Amino acid sequence: MKQDGCGAQEFFSGHHSYTYDDLIFLPGHIHFAVDNVSLKTQLTRNIALSLPFCSSPMDTVTEEKMAIYMALLGGIGILHFNNTLERQVEMLKQVKRFENGFITDPVVLSPDHTISDIEKIKLKYHFSGVPITEKGEVGQKLLGIVTNRDIDFEPNRNRPLKEVMSENLIVGQKGLSLEEANDLLRTSKKGKLPIVDRDYNLVALVSRHDLLLNRSYPLASKNKNKQLIVGAAISTRESDHERVDALVEAGADVLVVDAAQGDSLFAYEMIDYIKNKHKDSVDIIGGYVVTMNQAENLIKKGVDGLRIGMGPGSICTTQETMAVGRAQATAVYRTASIARKHGVPVIADGGIASMSHIVKALALGASAVMMGMLLAGTEESPGEYYYKTGLRLKRYRGMASKDAMKSGGAKRYLADQETIRVAQGVSGSVIDRGALGDFIPYLAKGVCHGFQDLGYNSLAEVHQGLDKETLRMEMRTPASQKEGGIHDLYDYNKESI
């Protein structure tokens, strides 16, 4: 029997470049419940995620708070580099400290520090349980611990910690397992468990808060050391070699070589540097690329993942400014078809303006989507909310906008040393989307419903359907796009996505 629609190979065989809105998938047979859909995926060859969601390395999208909650919820955040090396490394360390099994580099103070020093730590790191050692360093004799209970009602905030710290401690011995440490915390009903060696020197810390997070965030993205997974962006400039070294030392799980055009000599040199200096220590995501040749070239250089897109973002003007790029649906399908043969996952970055775009990007071969605009209005994104015409908004800007380039974003466009800079993006505002804890599960559930309508219960299955041509699609005319949206009403209320 002749099938409706066509397969992807036929659809993308012409000389047209298609966006997500240019196509519609035809429904498949539903033979499973929506709760049976799995969105587990590979970000890179070596990094798995529970959800195929990444936050973009933009200075109005991903800093430490965004990266923490993206990882807790099952995705990953990529820290931007529009800052100093020290600031980016500190952001990464905060993600690693936030929730892990044994905290091997806990914040420590000395007996001569004061309560006001605890308050500074609480403001910066959002916790206040601090071990006290002889000179305020890990590896020294443990003298006590200070928690909120010790200082909440103390009026003199300049009082030294040696006068308020708790000295009757329950500790774990170096060498115990994480499960044993967790059992000690449960039975002791303490908030923190210091881990000491035979000489009572502090070597690590386990937090009760982490146990609660393990229960509240079962999908959390973690490495083998039970630390949250986090990525960091770097430029292709030779001067960023030092940044690479510092980020790898701080525990970055993946580095994103962030270049507007990723198939370049400069990108190759940076990839070679990372592979030669830090072999097997960190994964590499290359990009941006939009063609099969570009993808093949970077795969040959040894990248572990690809970032797809050139100009489709809501604040990006590369295509109209540079006359170079590709519509995103075509870019994702073409690059993913090559990358899948090599076992290299691709990340669709740009043009994701709705839940349906996520479904389409994944169904066309992407293993994950990278979001900027959708996440810029959440509570976890950098910046403050403000009100305009009755709406609660946050600032959002492209990394090639004039504002971002002035702050350092020009590095990714090889323009930081130029006196004349050509902007390839704009600055704007996005509407408040609330907390990630509500928004990400909402997106995930919507994508699961989309997969159910397609008749596939996992990314692996939908990609098989793509290859076998059982996933069918058709082109949408402008009239069909209008018909598929809201129309012919006097007025209506529409959800934000």
Structure keywords:
CBS-domain; three-stranded mixed sheet; 2 domains
Radius of gyration using CA atoms only: 25 Å
Structural class: alpha/beta
Helix residue percentage:
25-40%
What is the fourth-level CATH superfamily of the largest domain? Answer: Aldolase class I
Looking across the biggest beta sheet, what order are the strands in?
4-5-11-12-13-14-15-16
How much is the average pLDDT?
90
Low-confidence stretches: none
CATH class type of the largest domain? Alpha Beta
Number of domains: 2
Number of strand segments:
20
Q: What fold name goes in the CATH topology slot of the largest domain?
A: TIM Barrel
Task: Write the CATH architecture name of the largest domain.
Answer: Alpha-Beta Barrel
* Fraction of residues in β-strands: 15-25%
Distance separating the two termini: 38 Å
> What can be said about the biggest beta sheet?
8 strands, parallel, barrel
- Indicate the overall shape: elongated
Distinct helical segment count: 18
Commentary on this structure:
The chain has 497 residues and is of the alpha/beta class. The protein has two domains: 354 residues, Alpha-Beta Barrel (TIM Barrel); 102 residues, CBS-domain (Roll), CATH 3.10.580.10. The protein contains 18 helices and 20 strands. The strands form six sheets. The protein has an eight-stranded parallel beta barrel, surrounded by seven helices. A three-stranded mixed β-sheet has the order 8-9-10. Strand 12, helix 9 and strand 13 form a beta-alpha-beta unit. Helix 3 packs parallel to helix 8 and helix 10 crosses helix 12. It starts with 7 loop residues before the first helix and ends in a 14-residue tail after the last helix.
